[in-house]
């Protein structure tokens, strides 16, 4: 901290001798930035709440400016209450973004000095809570729940980068992300692989326990393969960022199936071989909790039933419930 009594100490650019500044000089040397707070909310299908406003064409996350003397988390709660008519507290941060002063599209007469913007986790809103949204008479003209991959088409580029980075940080579970112009300073595996940059393939329908009945067409069988720590194998396409469960192994057993579009999509369950065999180089192999797998997929209401069946299978395999931890990429391995 600077000395606020007489003088403040500062090093010169060479890092050698030191110079003294008065408190006034030191204060004038510090960067002055705006502060903002937004809230990232998803629905039960993993879509992101964005709102239309009457003063710009692109969509925004709920939120706005932090008032003088106001804590950013208090500003986030105030903005959600003013814009959506919903009371709440949002203490969990997902990201802190530094927005540069030369960001395109900001009118020069605004004198924008740059901004520190806090992104808070608004959680997953149920249909009942969404039905309780009440928009104000002015400013907010509508809301929309958007597929994550559609955010770049709906939002300003920097806003979309920030929202996707914050959503990946929430799924990853490694704590808030530090961003610079929407880009993580320390990208996670989800960032590096660009997950959610393409639309998730919807697989809704109904969940049924047990094997597929005879005579029902079968499409895209997949497996929940458990590691010893209770996490499961997840494949991420390097080309698209799409998330997929791996194909069944020879010793995986039926768990259930989804019935959608006149066909069954079977799921099996088993243990991940140790060490795991080499995979297709077109896919990155990650270990994730079952909840993280679901959050990267669009499974509709049946996703809850499938997730419950997965945890029952994990218990039968005498494996521990995995805590949410950052997704871990497995090495490519060797081909036999």
Report on this structure:
The protein is an alpha+beta fold. The protein has eight helices and 19 strands. It is globular and about 75 Å long. The model is unreliable at 1-7 (pLDDT under 50).
State the shape. Answer: globular
Q: How are the strands of the largest sheet arranged?
A: 6-3-8-7-10-11
Percent helix, as a range, is: 10-25%
The main β sheet shows up as:
6 strands, mixed
Parts with pLDDT < 50 across at least 5 consecutive residues:
1-7
Total E-strand runs: 19
Along the chain, the helix and strand elements come as EEHEEEEHEEHEHHEEHEEEEEEEHHE
Number of helices: 8
The first-to-last residue Cα distance is 59 Å
Portion in strands: 25-35%
Structural class by secondary-structure content: alpha+beta
| Rounded radius of gyration (Å) | 24 Å
Oligomer: single chain
Mean pLDDT score, rounded? 91
TL;DR of this structure?
By secondary structure, the protein is of the alpha+beta class.
SSE topology:
Layout: E1 8-11, E2 18-21, H1 23-29, E3 34-43, E4 48-53, E5 56-60, E6 63-65, H2 72-84, E7 93-99, E8 115-125, H3 127-131, E9 140-146, H4 151-154, H5 157-172, E10 177-180, E11 183-184, H6 189-193, E12 206-209, E13 222-226, E14 232-237, E15 243-244, E16 253-260, E17 263-271, E18 283-288, H7 290-295, H8 302-316, E19 328-329
Question: What labels describe this entry?
Answer:
8 helices, 31% strand
